[in-house]
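#lab-general

N.A. 3:47 PM
ok so I finally got the sequence cleaned up, no stray characters, all 369 residues accounted for. can someone with queue access submit it? mine expired

B.Y. 3:52 PM
send it over

N.A. 3:53 PM
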Amino acid sequence: MAHTTPAGQPSSSDGFCADPPIGDGEERDWNQFLLRSRLGSFQQFSLWAKVKAREGWTPYRSVFRSEGRVIGGYQWLERRKRVGRIAYVSKGPVLEEETEDQVSAALDDLVRKARERRLVALVLQPPDLSSVGERALGRRGFVVEDLMGVITTTLVVDLTGGMEQVEAGIRRSTRVEIRQSRQRGATVRLGGVADAARFFELMSATCVRQGVSPNPSSAEAVRDILETFGSMGCVRLTFAECEGQSVAGVLSLLVGSKIYIWKKGWNGQHARLYPNALLYQECLEWGCAQGYREVDFMGLDRRVADAMLGGEALGSEVLRSRDQFHLGFGGKPRRLPSSYLWIANPVVRFALGGLLARPWGRRVLKRMA
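B.Y. 4:20 PM
back already:
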């Protein structure tokens, strides 16, 4: 189990969540399968389903077995809206091997279950490293959509080479900020459930500056995340302390060999002490020490990712973006699978495909979504 320990303190952790196994029976088997799979992610984890259930979503899971052994499956979250029951499969289905037969069986099962549960619509995004794409999904009535704001590019730092290799990729100006942060007295402390309200304040301050609504939407929701994932050692909350105050925080989810920097917050104070740079550096150091393989920054502007992957120079308008801070840590961009939409009604599905093919139609649908 990945334990939450203060920076610089040794841990007996091997860096991998789920020892002892999470859950009982099928839940335990499913979680263990996800932890073994390169396609597993926290969105398919049973802990995530428990958190979302308390927000009004109904979880549903379909697990595939061969000779009693789990070889794949998916978890979706469904909810009743004015138009009827909708569901979202985030980072699924997860399969042991994405052979044509396994992919076909999984997608056919997905559509069949969607009809059985009388869903009117289903949104699906395959796992990050999945090869399941438009061809297989299109044959079953799925169409590519970008109405829901699903993240399709991210930035990942590889930890397998150790901290020395990680630091070699960090931008010189970022290394200067980290050094100055420490010299000027900023420190990192480990947080817990009692700090949920403080973290929500910091996260909300960041959301105000960015002009978005906070998600999770309340201190109680943050507390739920900390309690649920914390019960199995799969969450880590850290704060940057400046002159005795917690001015910035990072909430990371720990699943398998991966650290997800899921949420962060900063109240804008003590900018010259570079609290955010210190927090990210500490996360990378801790991850290397605990044996994690990578850190996912959970998002990167698509234009930035495409430019970097295409070997193009980043223009000044991109470097002024909020991605500039993340890029300072030397991560590599990763394209993620597109998001797909399935509509139960074939007439509506046909009309939707036509609207999505037209710019004005996409604008109308995005406002509706």
